Every structure is written in C-alpha cells, then in structure tokens.
C-alpha cells in the first residue's frame, strides 16, 4: 500500500468524472477521492498522496442537504492553498452510485455513506442464519445504489449441503453471480479474483457476523480489520474509527468499509423471528458468541437464563423449532410464495443487469 501511486485511473477515475470536473479546472483545483470522513475532517487520495481535507465555506453553505456533502468514495475538486495546510474541498462530482441512509430525527434528510461503488459483495452465511428473504432486502439496497451485486454465501464449511443451497439461490438470482465460499477453509475464493479489478471499487454488505472482516482480511492478504466474535455493540467503540474507510487491495481494486455501511444491517432486524420471540432473542443477545447455538458454548446467556428459571425451557424449544423451520423454509417456501419470490427476484435481477452490469466488465 505504501508504494501505491495515486494516479487517477488507479483510483477509479473515468471520462465521465473528467467531463464533470471541467467546471472546476479553472479554479486551480485538482481531483481527489475521499478515503475517510470523520465528521468535519476528511482524508483525500490525491495525486500528491493522501492529504487532509476540509470543506470550503461555500460548499457547506450551498449544500441543501447532507447528501450534497462529500462521502467516502466521492470524487471531489480540491485546492491546496498552502503547502502544509489541509486541501480545501470545493465541490463533489456527480456520483455513479451511492448508498444512502435517511438520518433519524432530522426529518427525512438523506445522508450518503458510500459513493461510486462498482461492485457490491452481498455476504451471507450458510449456517443457521441463512435467509433468502434477508438476502433479497440486501439485493434491493444494492440495486438501488446502482452498484453491481455479487452474492457470496460464506461459511460453506459449516454447511454440508452448501452446493444445493447455492444452486437454490442461483436459481432465483438469475444473472447475478452467486458463489459459495469459506473464508476459513479458502474454499471457492479463487473466482473472486474476477471482481478484484484495478481501479474498481468494492463494498461489502451483510449482517454482522457473516464474515465481512474475515473476507476483507483475506483479500488484503493481511490483518486490516479486527476479526472475532465481537458483537455489534462492542464493535462501535472508538477503535473502529482509526482504520481507513477506503483502501487499496494488492490487486489494485479499492474497498470501502465504513461504519455506516455496516450499520445498514439494522434494516434487516424485523426479518428473523418477526418479533414472536423477542424475549428469547433479547436474552440470546447476551451470549458471548453471536452465533451461539445455546448448547455447549461458554457464557451462554440462554442456558444461564434457563438454569435460573428466568426462561421457560419449553419456550426455548418452541423458539428453536421455529428457527429450524424458518431455515428450511428459506428456500422451500410453499409453491405460491415460491412463485411470488421468483417473480420478485426476476424483476430485481433484471434491474441489476440493466443498471449496472456494464460497470465491472
Ligand atoms: P463480520 O461481522 O461480517 O465482519 O464477521 P467477521 O469477519 O468478524 O466473522 C465473524 C465470525 O465468523 C468470526 O468468528 C470468524 O472467524 C467466523 N468466520 C468467518 N468466515 C468464516 C467461514 O468461512 N467459516 C467459518 N466456520 N467461520 C467463519
Ligand atoms: Zn447461547
């Protein structure tokens, strides 16, 4: 990474950005790409390396919504006023894709959390959390963003019938690549090389615990994110803000991994048990391991609650039964539901190909 030359093409620059940039070129500006956004301060990849950046008063003043301000992945026009001072960001170039979030509390103002993503890895795990409906929601997010989705079904090592499940997913995900992988075993990872194209930007989306950090570490060939059975709550500490939010892989592809993107998983919480077992789920949230099966795992809050008679074992069994049924139903819904699902996916897949297929080839 240290030897990486920040020429614009390697950072994803293209003719359409060049055209959009022309209006700034008279103002002694040069192009840069946002690598990090920490509130008011930015880190920007530029032809002079990584520089600190601040927004110009005018850009801030003229912004009509937070979405007008730079986000990680954005191409911006910067001017270096003094040799040592921060670069001043004068404008944001139109985005070719974006992930947004409606900020709670502040009306319905959209905030952009990642921009100009070419390929989105939708990571899901094949263990007990596998859920086609949830995958569908992520697919909708990906397609809305304008990025090209690729479905990665991780933890194939935990799932003996992973090939069958992957075929089931591919069956509905017409035209969208589906790969069963195991980051731990290294199985199925080779085909991912096709997506790691120099200058293309990748982002990962998926629930907590599916293996996004592990995959990023694998792709980066070294430890970049802390991996482990850390729950989301513990994961939001300050230590997570110190790592770069957009970085370059050895292949030359760029990866965006921001806390905001990770938080998009909140959207999928109503799927699971649909609130029917909130009591059990809130107890299970206290287990040491996120994917605790409440059997022999240490520090299991569920077993503990049963021992202390705070949770009725019968209720726990009912919860387990429903979970099992839901897993099996993930692919094998009844005929009518299956037909509806197929129809929805078909539509989504068509949108994906119309919108973004040409972005990565
Ligand atoms: P993230 O929350 O999506 O970033 O998930 P992590 O990368 O932190 O992984 C969560 C847990 O899953 C960790 O304990 C990983 O070691 C484990 N994990 C990741 N990939 C695999 C895999 O392919 N197989 C198995 N068995 N475990 C995995
Ligand atoms: Zn447990």
What does this structure look like?
The chain is an alpha/beta fold and 361 residues long. Among the domains are: 8-92, OB fold (Dihydrolipoamide Acetyltransferase, E2P); 98-257, P-loop containing nucleotide triphosphate hydrolases (Rossmann fold, 3-Layer(aba) Sandwich), CATH 3.40.50. The protein is 29% helix and 20% strand. It has ten helices and 13 strands. The strands form three sheets. It has a six-stranded mixed sheet with strand order 10-9-8-11-13-12, with helices on both faces. A five-stranded mixed β-barrel has the order 1-2-3-5-4. The model is unreliable at 225-242 and 266-272 (pLDDT under 50).
Write the topology of this structure.
Elements (H helix, E strand, L loop, with lengths): L14 H7 L8 E9 L2 E6 L2 E7 L1 H6 L12 E6 L6 E6 L5 E5 L7 E6 L3 E7 L6 H14 L2 E7 L7 H11 L5 E3 L20 E5 L6 H9 L25 E3 L5 E3 L2 H5 L14 H7 L16 H7 L5 H17 L5 H22 L5
Parallel strand pairs: 3-5, 8-9, 8-11, 9-10, 11-13
Antiparallel strand pairs: 1-2, 1-4, 2-3, 4-5, 6-7, 12-13
Helix pairs in contact: 3-10
Bound molecules: guanosine-5'-diphosphate and zinc ion (ZN).
List keywords for this structure.
20% strand; six-stranded mixed β-sheet; alpha/beta; binds guanosine-5'-diphosphate; 361 residues; five-stranded mixed β-barrel; OB fold (Dihydrolipoamide Acetyltransferase, E2P); Rossmann fold
State mean pLDDT (0 to 100 scale): 81
Q: Provide the CATH architecture of the domain at 98-257.
A: 3-Layer(aba) Sandwich
How does the major sheet shape up?
A: 6 strands, mixed
Derived from helix and strand composition plus strand pairing, the structural class reads alpha/beta
Query: What is the CATH level 1 assignment of the domain at 98-257?
Result: Alpha Beta
Q: Which ions, cofactors or small ligands are bound in this entry?
A: guanosine-5'-diphosphate, zinc ion
* Helix residue percentage: 25-40%
Strand content: 15-25%
What is the helix tally?
Answer: 10
């Amino acid at each position: 990474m240290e030897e990486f030359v920040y020429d614009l093409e390697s950072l994803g620059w293209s003719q359409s950005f060049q055209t959009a940039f022309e209006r700034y070129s008279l103002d002694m500006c040069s192009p840069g790409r946002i690598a990090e956004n920490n509130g008011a301060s930015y880190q920007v990849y530029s032809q002079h390396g990584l520089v600190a950046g601040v927004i110009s008063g005018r850009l801030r003043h003229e912004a009509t919504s937070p979405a007008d301000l730079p986000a990680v992945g954005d191409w911006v026009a910067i001017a270096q006023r003094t040799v040592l001072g921060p670069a001043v960001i004068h404008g944001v170039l139109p985005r070719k894709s974006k992930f947004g979030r409606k900020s709670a509390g502040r009306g319905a103002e959209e905030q952009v959390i990642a921009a100009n993503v070419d390929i989105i890895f939708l990571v899901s795990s094949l263990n007990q959390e596998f859920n086609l409906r949830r995958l569908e929601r992520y697919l909708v997010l990906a397609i809305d963003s304008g990025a090209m989705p690729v479905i990665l079904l991780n933890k194939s090592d935990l799932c003996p019938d992973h090939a069958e499940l992957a075929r089931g997913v591919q069956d509905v995900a017409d035209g969208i690549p589906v790969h069963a992988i195991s980051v731990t075993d290294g199985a199925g990872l080779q085909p991912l090389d096709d997506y790691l194209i120099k200058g293309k930007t990748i982002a990962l989306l998926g629930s907590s615990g599916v293996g996004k950090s592990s995959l990023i570490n694998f792709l980066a060939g070294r430890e970049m994110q802390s991996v482990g059975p850390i729950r989301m709550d513990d994961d939001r500490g300050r230590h997570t803000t110190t790592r770069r939010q957009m970085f370059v892989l050895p292949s030359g592809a760029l990866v965006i991994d921001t806390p905001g993107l990770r938080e998009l998983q909140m959207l999928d919480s109503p799927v699971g048990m649909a609130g029917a077992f909130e009591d059990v789920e809130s107890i299970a949230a206290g287990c040491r391991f996120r994917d605790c099966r409440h059997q022999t795992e240490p520090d299991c809050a569920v077993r503990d609650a049963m021992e202390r008679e705070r949770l009725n074992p019968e209720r726990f069994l009912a919860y387990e039964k429903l979970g099992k049924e839901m897993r099996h139903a993930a692919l094998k819904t009844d005929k009518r539901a299956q037909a509806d699902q197929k129809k929805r996916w078909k539509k989504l897949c068509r949108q994906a190909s119309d919108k973004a297929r040409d972005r990565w080839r």
